[in-house]
Write a structure and sequence with these properties.
The structure holds two protein chains of two kinds. By secondary structure, chain A is mainly α. Chain A has two domains: 66 residues; 298 residues, ABC transporter involved in vitamin B12 uptake, BtuC (Orthogonal Bundle). Chain A contains 16 helices and two strands. A two-stranded antiparallel sheet of chain A has the order 1-2. Chain A is globular, with a radius of gyration of 25 Å. Chain A starts with a helix and ends in a 26-residue tail after the last helix. By secondary structure, chain B is an alpha/beta fold. Chain B has two domains: 172 residues, 3-Layer(aba) Sandwich (Rossmann fold), CATH 3.40.50.300; 76 residues, no CATH class. Chain B has ten helices and ten strands. In chain B, the strands form two sheets. Chain B has a six-stranded mixed sheet, sandwiched between helices. A four-stranded antiparallel sheet of chain B has the order 2-1-4-5, with helices on one face. The longest helix of chain B is centred in the middle third of the chain and has 21 residues. Chain B starts with a strand and ends in a 6-residue tail after the last helix. At the A-B interface, helix 10, helix 11, helix 12 and helix 13 of A face helix 2, helix 3, helix 4 and helix 5 of B.
Chain lengths: 409, 262
């Protein structure tokens, strides 16, 4: 399996890497002694390292290709495993109760810091599920998703600042405003697809951020809005520690609510229309689906969750400014959806947890954190482009029918 | 008796190219009408104009409505035309590849169902009922087309002939009164073509759905159609029963060239 040509390729890769990293890894100028040091051992390390990694890479690619050729040889697919797991009450019931116990006791066992990270992960899970409607189901690549997040956050911040409205009043308002802005974005991009759509949504995200940054009278500009009220519990305010735990539970509830609504939408007439739109726009229209309405509903229902999370975000940090809503946020949410598995609810949740918790816990290696993060993304996309947990289709059972397999190979 | 579909003086220009040149056409109730012609004659353009994918540059398209009158449908959106009762298949298969066979047909039921977002979230009794009905009906259509063994299979994994049949099933799910088939036998082997022959005839006779058919397989065309329209360079050059058309010198010339016509 590791034949001569692979070794040759890896050798070439190694030489190439040694050449590329030569200036930074080998030559070292010592300004104090005015001397040039030649660190040849570094060159050797780079060469050996890249040679081994390249061999490993070729080996894994080969393995993956073999899996494609004779299907069934590689039953390592997690999707059928998960499917089996979900269909077996003896397995998933204890797992579910363990998960419930852990999530309920979590804030009492760990520090506020840990609870905070977990809350962030939950928020991103909800954001991911929202974007999943637009990107995963309807197939509309949206790079400006953070705009709706900003809309939600600023609607709470401003309504709280000017009118003293509470968190619970603004939560639905934020969701509605998010949906409204979703439709607002949807109208001009109705005719666009793919790359063009991505560019316009990217622009939309930037426009919202720039407006917030520059319209001082409205949004208080780059200095942002401070002293936003934390969520109250039937008119009661918690001290800081209590509020952290309260928001954690609030997020658990909201995440469950999101999963409930999104899964029901997915398995409905509208969810099917979204998927048809993703699969083939012309055929979808020819089947009697109103393209305009379907696209707008996807944008609106996706943006709703971002608006809602924006409100939570503002209430949690008590301070917002436009710097929280940059393009990188959209990119992270999109990565969550793609890495987790487009269209798959458990996938997106898992993606959110990994992409948010991993960098936090990797703070130990703070210098290499982003490097590892990037490498993980690349490796995932090469070896598992469908995401960690790929979308499974619902299987309909009828009497007297030979069952076809509804699981993709 | 009014025709179900009437196309009159229909023209379609793409820049300087005239793809359809004042074409007239009628489909009557319960018939199979085949449109034939050499490549580039404008057959698929005709389909696209009727189904609303293109807006014609000139002329009119009418369909008969429930009241017995005629209704002009030029330039309506494709989904509205489908809702009015004209369904189609595509020359190059356009299924929803990553959805199951059943789901593909369920999409066809979209325009005959009504549940909305609120209904989908709360799943009230009417939504559940409607959903059950969609599954039942789609299943029934699949059985009728002979695809029930593939119900939960991905559409993209189906054999080629089955994919073509699935397109027909999906179109039938929209409850059309005119079914437009764009080269349904393309790429099929003789056995599959024979089965398709029976299927199309069955749809026409049993379901009382009129059929407009584009096809290059002359054996199929001759055996299945009640009337044939021959097109060349966007114009209608002949029309009539299969036997008349077969012996028409104009048609032979269009297909085979000048020297064979004599």
């Amino acid at each position: 399996m590791l034949n001569f040509s692979k070794i040759k390729k890896s050798l070439l890769t190694a030489i190439w890497f040694m050449f590329l990293t030569f200036p930074i890894m080998v030559i070292h100028i010592n300004p104090v002694e005015k001397a040039v040091e030649w660190r040849w051992h570094n060159m050797f390390l780079v060469g050996a390292g890249s040679f081994l990694l390249s061999l490993l890479w070729h080996y894994l690619i080969k393995k993956k290709e073999r899996c494609f050729k004779d299907a069934g040889a590689c039953e390592s697919d997690t999707a059928p495993f998960l499917q089996r797991f979900m269909n077996e009450p003896r397995l998933y019931k204890p797992a579910l109760s363990a998960l419930t116990v852990i999530s309920l006791s979590f804030p009492f066992l760990f520090s506020s810091y840990q609870v905070n990270i977990m809350t962030t992960a939950l928020m991103y899970a909800v954001l991911g599920l929202g974007l999943n409607i637009v990107v995963g189901l309807a197939g509309l690549l949206d790079l400006g998703y953070v705009a709706f997040y900003a809309v939600g956050a600023y609607s709470y911040a401003l309504l709280n600042h000017h009118f003293g409205l509470g968190f619970w009043t603004v939560l639905p308002v934020g969701a509605l405003l998010g949906a409204l802005f979703g439709i607002l974005l949807g109208f001009p991009v109705l005719r666009l697809r793919g790359d063009y759509l991505a560019i316009v949504t990217l622009g939309f995200g930037e426009i919202i951020r720039l407006i917030l940054e520059n319209w001082n009278e409205f949004s208080f500009g780059p200095s942002g809005i401070a002293n936003i009220a934390r969520p109250s519990f039937f008119g009661m305010q918690f001290p800081l520690k209590g509020a952290t735990i309260y928001i954690y539970f609030l997020m658990i509830a909201l995440a469950l609510f999101t999963v409930f609504v999104v899964s029901r939408l997915q398995n409905s007439r509208i969810g099917r229309a979204w998927e048809a739109l993703r699969e083939d726009e012309i055929a979808c229209q020819a089947m009697g689906i109103d393209k305009t309405r379907t696209k707008l509903s996807a944008f609106a229902l996706g943006a709703t969750w971002a608006g809602m999370m924006g409100v939570v975000f503002a209430a949690r940090t008590t301070f917002i400014n436009p710097a929280s809503f940059t393009f990188i946020e959209s990119a992270i949410i999109l990565s969550i959806v793609v890495l987790g598995g487009m269209g798959s609810i458990p996938g997106v949740i898992a993606g959110a947890f990994i992409l948010i918790l991993l960098p936090e816990h990797l703070r130990v290696f703070s210098e290499y954190r982003m490097l590892i993060f990037g490498a993980v993304l690349i490796i995932m996309m090469v070896f598992r482009p469908q995401g960690m947990i790929s979308m499974t289709r619902r299987i309909y059972r009828f009497e007297n029918v030979k069952e076809g397999r509804g699981i993709d190979k | 008796m009014n025709p179900l579909l009437k196309v009159s003086k229909l023209s379609m220009d793409f820049g300087g190219l005239r793809a359809l040149d004042s074409l007239d056409l009628e489909i009557r109730e319960g018939e199979v009408l085949a449109v034939i012609g050499p490549n580039g004659a404008g057959k698929t353009t005709l389909f696209n104009c009727i189904t609303g994918i293109y807006e014609p540059s000139g002329g009119d398209i009418y369909i008969s409505n429930a009241g017995g009158g005629m209704e002009r449908i030029n330039g309506l959106l494709p989904n509205i035309i489908t809702k009015k009762g004209i369904a189609r298949t595509f020359q190059n298969i356009r299924l929803f590849p990553n959805m199951t066979v059943l789901e593909n047909v369920m999409i066809g039921r979209h325009c005959r169902t009504h549940s909305r977002i609120i209904g989908a979230i709360f799943r009230g009794r009417s939504t559940v009922q409607e959903e059950k009905e969609v599954v039942r009906k789609s299943r029934e259509i699949l059985e009728q087309i002979g695809l029930s063994e593939y119900v939960n299979e991905f559409a993209k994994n189906l054999p080629y002939g089955a994919q073509r049949r699935l397109e027909i099933a999906r179109a039938l799910a929209t409850e059309p009164f005119i079914l437009m088939l764009d080269e349904p036998a393309a790429g099929m082997n003789p056995q599959e073509t024979r089965e398709l022959d029976d299927l199309i005839r069955g749809i026409c006779d049993r379901e009382n759905i009129s059929i407009l058919l584009i096809e290059h397989d002359m054996k199929l065309v001759m055996s299945i159609s009640d009337r044939i329209v021959v097109m060349d360079y966007g114009k209608k050059i002949a029309e009539g029963a299969p036997d008349e058309v077969r012996n028409d010198p104009v048609v032979i010339k269009a297909y085979l060239g000048e020297e064979f016509a004599a």
